[in-house]
């Protein structure tokens, strides 16, 4: 026997504006008066707003490239966060971290300070809104407690709304995860074992000082430089192709531009380096390359045949992380 449908009544006229639509059950009549279920009416737009992927979530934040690097490249790093309206009473500091113990999205420490983890799975398609939601809840959490990730409302604030737009992000790269603890030297038992496991899995990484958002890392076979760049993808690929075709894309002897990947709307060129080449060894070559790149970015003539081939090769070696 077929199940009877629950009758729905249709209001003669809409009584609420879009901005006043309350959240109701997905299968309930939409309060706008359309007679349709909420999930098929105003609920559809609300769900799409929460799940739609924001491809460049850190756009507009000072240090956007370093935000991307802390999210995708760096194992252990922290950076101080400054809020537009200052920190609430009882919160001495707010710190962005690459990752927190147990992959917690956020943590209110015993002393009232707040730490936010960036390398977490997020519940919506807008990473900026997700992290901002964790930050807001961490600021009012009871000291000594982690903060879980929750799906934020579609109209909730983003990092761009909460953080001081004039305060740059300055990552501090760490050798390990001792920043998790106020007194790492006294750690013992399970805590010490967990810290040791995390440290052993982290690749040695350094942030260059001569250029922005370039990170050296050591791997067992070779070293790499991964450089998050703010330029538009097409113009950056053209410039890299011009340099590559002219033999000017390397960072010195036995180094090679091997490709790039996309991360959160930005392009990240990658160089292979000799295993003996340290972060310090990269400083001068990277600064010189930045000057060559700036010059190449200013060229507007069509690419030559060799440059087009170089561009095609670079484009074919791209992957997308986000």
UniProtKB/TrEMBL annotation:
Annotated InterPro entries: DUF5926, SEC_C_motif
Domain DUF5926: 57-321
Signal peptide (from-to): none
Region (Disordered): 1-25
Domain of life of the organism encoding this protein: Bacteria
TM ranges: none
Protein name per Swiss-Prot or TrEMBL: SEC-C domain-containing protein
Protein's organism: Streptomyces alkaliterrae
Lineage of source species: Bacteria, Bacillati, Actinomycetota, Actinomycetes, Kitasatosporales
């Amino acid at each position: 026997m077929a199940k009877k449908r629950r009758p729905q009544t249709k209001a003669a006229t809409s009584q609420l504006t879009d901005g006043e639509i309350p959240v109701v059950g997905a299968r309930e009549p939409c309060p706008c008066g359309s007679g349709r279920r909420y999930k098929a009416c105003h609920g559809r737009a609300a769900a799409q707003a929460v799940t739609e992927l924001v491809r460049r979530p850190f756009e507009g934040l000072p240090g956007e490239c370093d935000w991307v690097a802390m999210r995708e490249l760096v194992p252990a790093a922290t950076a101080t966060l400054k809020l537009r309206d200052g920190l609430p009473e009882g919160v001495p500091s707010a710190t962005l971290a690459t990752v927190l113990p147990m992959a917690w999205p956020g943590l209110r420490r015993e002393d009232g300070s707040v730490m936010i983890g960036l390398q977490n799975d997020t519940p919506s398609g807008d990473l900026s809104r997700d992290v901002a939601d964790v930050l807001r809840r961490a600021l009012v959490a009871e000291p000594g407690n982690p903060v879980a990730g929750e799906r934020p409302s579609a109209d909730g604030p983003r990092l761009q709304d909460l953080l001081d737009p004039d305060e740059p992000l300055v990552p501090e790269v760490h050798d390990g995860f001792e920043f998790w603890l106020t007194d790492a030297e006294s750690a013992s038992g399970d805590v010490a074992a967990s810290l040791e496991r995390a440290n052993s899995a982290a690749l040695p990484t350094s942030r260059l000082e001569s250029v922005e958002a370039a990170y050296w890392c050591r791997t067992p076979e070779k070293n790499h430089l991964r450089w998050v760049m703010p330029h538009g993808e097409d113009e950056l690929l053209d410039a890299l192709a011009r340099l590559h075709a002219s033999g000017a894309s390397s960072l010195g002897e036995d180094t090679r531009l091997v490709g790039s990947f996309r991360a959160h709307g930005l392009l990240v060129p990658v160089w292979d380096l000799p295993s003996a080449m340290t972060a310090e060894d990269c400083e001068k070559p990277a600064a010189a390359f930045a000057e060559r790149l700036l010059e190449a970015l200013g060229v507007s003539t069509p690419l030559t045949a060799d440059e087009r081939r170089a561009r095609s090769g670079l484009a074919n070696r791209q992957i997308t992380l986000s």
